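To: structure desk
From: M.T.
Subject: fold request, one chain
Message: Could you run this one when you get a chance? Sequence is below, nothing fancy, just the single chain.
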Amino acid sequence: MKSSPTNALQVECVDPPLSLRRQYLCDRFFFRIWQSNSHPLLPKLDILKRLCNAQETHGLSYLLKTYIFSSNLPHPTSKFSIYPLFDVPYDALVFQPNVVMDLGISKDSPAAEKALSAKLNSEWSGWLPIFTDASKLSENSNVGLAVWLPKYKVALSFKRPPESSVFTGEATAILEALLYAESHKLNKTIILSDSASSLQAIISFPFKSKSKFPIILKIRETLFRCMTQGIEVAIAWIPGHSGIIGPRLDRSWKVSWDTSRNFKGKFYSHIQPHIPKKPWFFKAKHLDKPATSTLCRLRLGHACTPVHLARIRVRDSSVCDCGASEGSVDHLFFECPNLQTSLYDILPPTIPKPVNTNYLLTLVHTPLVNILYKFLKTNNIKL
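Reply: Done. Structure tokens follow.
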């Protein structure tokens, strides 16, 4: 409905505000050119920064905001005189590294540790296992990374600045493990990492991959160097926890939502207090469009109920057509005599009673959405 609050609609569809989307796209573009010392846009942005130095950041272009933010970072950033891809030997770019993406170990298996030991003993007998990991506890904390060699009781630990991502930390840990294996001539070494994204970046063909991370190129170069020296190195993925901290877009949107919901979308914020990763209806593709629209309107608190239509002066009265009571959502779903089947009659026993629709609308991410869909279809309810 036209009266639906925009901020709530954006959260329901997991579609960030346009201002944040524009800033995000400028960030992505800028950090690609920021790696090069010779990009012609950088000097012009520097001139703009000096001209606008005395002004507030409000009203500046998104690209200039990104440049000012990057220039004020407390830690130095890596820059290259030539494109990083051209600084790596061609043979290191085209060879296929030994990367295993599936060891046949389930993440949720209670015996995962024993299964890993059995796999290493049977299929990787004689190989030296090296474990790598990285984590970031909070937005402002450093990225910690470690390399662990159980056989020699050797542990290497490093840290990256808070601006680094967990992906960078995981890739750096793999690179440090490779450099250790190369410097100590550790033949037949298998590096075990729980970062599937890092391993996928390593095996992706550099000339066709959209993302060309310099740290990944260094890993490929080191792997190729080990191969030419006769040092066998494999990298394998093992299931583990995911500790990826969200980008600036997610954090900015969260702050915006936490502030704006105090003024607009109050009803919806009680049903959906946090921004989800994906819209709830992505997992409910079996729902038809009228049912999805009805559930979205109910969650937003702007549906064609007699109470709401009277509030926006479309109807003169808020009384239900049955004449028994006001046409609230609870009345239409539980008490209206015109219902063929009350929602109470088809709710599973696991739902505590008494219950209201506001609580049920928080459960659309669960199998309860099928029951709500059945109820709407049976009673031909379109709000």
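Reply (cont.): The chain has three domains: 6-71, 84-237, 278-378. Let me know if you need anything else for the meeting.
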